[in-house]
Amino acid sequence: MTTSIRPKAIVFDVNETLLDLSSLQWAFAQQFNEPYAFKHWFSSLLQYSLVDTLTADYHDFGQIGKAALTMTSAYFDKPLSPDEQQSLLALIADLQPYPDVEPGLARLKEAGFRLVTLTNSPTRTLTQQMANTGLDAYFEALWSVDDVQVFKPHPQTYGLALSRLQLPPDQAMLVACHGWDIAGAARVGMQTGFIARPGQSPYALAPAPTITGNTLLDLAEQLI
Description:
By secondary structure, the protein is an alpha/beta fold. It has helices at residues 22-32, 37-54, 61-75, 82-90, 101-110, 123-133, 155-165, 179-187, 216-223; strands at 9-12, 19-20, 96-97, 114-119, 141-144, 172-176, 191-195, 211-213.
């Protein structure tokens, strides 16, 4: 660790950090007959969430995801029926955790850390995801950016978690696998834990993560 302060709370990103998106990637590839369809859709989803934030507009992640899917269909010249769109988007609520997630959360909870989530997904999706996986048992609270109506990495999103935790930034750690999320949390003074999920890397122009590991168990061992 690059700091001697042990965080009191750990704030978790959800999609791709805790939950494996490979089933969704496979479904997109099958539907579009194109291996890069998911990447195009997910990049568009993130891009237009930032457009909403910068233009002081707000549609939740589900709405933006549907709009991004329409744009992805146009990009690959593959029209989808409403039922096909709904079937693809519904898979987000049924994502499964990576194998390291439940044992990692258990270790951290046993060690006395407060555990919460902070996700760009709407509250209804987050609640379904956590209930379907059983991970909700590990968390003190499940928080979404719905409550501030701007998306991560805007400072207000991390401020929401810090305010509810009643902690100063350096006593909380964001754990994520996305460089942009780590950069946003570091910018407000939080400690950061980067999980190096396949294809992910920290943002080179942001402060280095406080800790880094290939799995949540790696991070848990470093913290404990």
